[in-house]
Amino acid sequence: MRVTILVVFIASSFFTGQIVDGADWGQFRGPLGNGVAVDSNPPIQWNAERNVKWKIMVPGQGWSSPVMGGGRVYLTAAVPSSDGHTLKAIGLDSRTGKTLWDTVVFKQPGDAPGIHGKNSHASPTPILADGRLYVHFGHQGTACLDTNGKILWTNSTIHYAPVHGNGGSPAISGDRLVFSVDGEKQAFIVALSTKDGSEVWRRERVSGATRKFSFSTPAIIDVNGITQVISPGTDVVHALDLKDGSIIWQVSYDGYSVIPRPVFGHGMVYMSTGYGTPNVLAIALDGKGDVTNTHLRWRLQKGAPHTPSLLLVKDQLYMVSDRGIASCVDARTGAIHWQQRVGSAYSASPIYAAGRVYLLSEEGVGTVLAASTEFKSLAVNDLQERSLASYGVMGNSLVIRTAKHLFWVEGK
User: Which CATH number fits domain 52-409: 3.30.70.980, 2.130.10.10, 3.40.50.720, 3.20.20.70?
Assistant: First the structure.
């Protein structure tokens, strides 16, 4: 089996189409969508003052992660209004943090469905690709802007009832913008045209799940010349053909409210099955049809995360559970190298840079570990603000979103 790899020495790289240059950070979990920061050397130590080039107040609320490129930082936010929320896209100067533009994309009415206490009305991370910014607000709609904040198109025709609000981010490849819809009663995957936002295809998610809701971000990979969209949902993960949404393979499991984004390497996709009791699954990519009983290479329950995505670096798979247990396991076999407590509450996904693994707790504590089969903590850094968003990386800098601020961290 041939799996196309964009960066050959990083085993989890996968094809995501027209994301900005690898030095930038153009989507959820970076240019490769897997948390790997290529050719970056971010600081090891920081706090609310140390190694902070700038910090700014962020309007409203939002747990979307920052994306960066072309000297700018982009965010989404939900700002309370007299009759609901204004759903915004924001462009900032990366040198100073100055707001360059602030565009209202949608107006959300006051009677919109409620959200979970760990969610926001602006949780999906934008995508920066080919000089365009794609923003997604779940059931409220999806839009495309230019990098100066002008709205190019919107699509608010995909209606469904969410549970706990919006969550999963979109993925992009070629001329398709793909996202999962896993609501209270409906569950499907949809692809929009990047040109005008029109719906290209829709694939119903078939399972016997009684709790249909999930929030995972799809991932896209080329396998034997076919571009597969890997979309985990409640009780089942589907691999779809990007061209028409047809199902290539699927694996069933027991899990709902699935959040983590899959990663790839060694001819396998790695994912976590969400709530109930989470399991990390390693699934071979060369299957057809229902491969539940034939292509599951290994399963790991101990230390599996409900929320943070996995991190694959060469032969090691790193993860942190929602309750603060960090793990390093052999990606080929699932054998555990180490497991250590690093805190008590995690939602943000880990990243890798310069031989290090960066974790960020819900209390805003950034823990830096050596990327090694032996556990070694290098630093513990406290911003003293709540944080559920994942890191952004720009060159040798970290960009960190907290409940109130956006921090640009650089130095040693």
Answer: 2.130.10.10
Considering only CA atoms, give the Rg of the chain: 19
145: β partners: 133, 151
Closest by CA to 68, choosing from 39, 33, 94, is 94
Predicted TM-score (pTM) of the model is 0.94
Tokens for 40?
A: 């970056």
Per-residue pLDDT of 214-260, as tens digits, reads 999 999 999 999 999 999 999 999 999 999 999 999 999 999 999 99
- What is the torsional sign of CA 77, 401, 346, 129? positive
Which parts of 114-175 are beta strand (E)?
127-129, 132-136, 142-146, 151-155, 171-173
Q: Tell me the per-residue pLDDT of 248-303, one tens digit each, with 9 for 90 and over.
A: 999 999 999 999 999 999 999 999 999 999 999 999 999 999 999 999 999 999 99
Bridge partners, 127 (sequence order) = 134
Residue with tokens 């076919």: 226
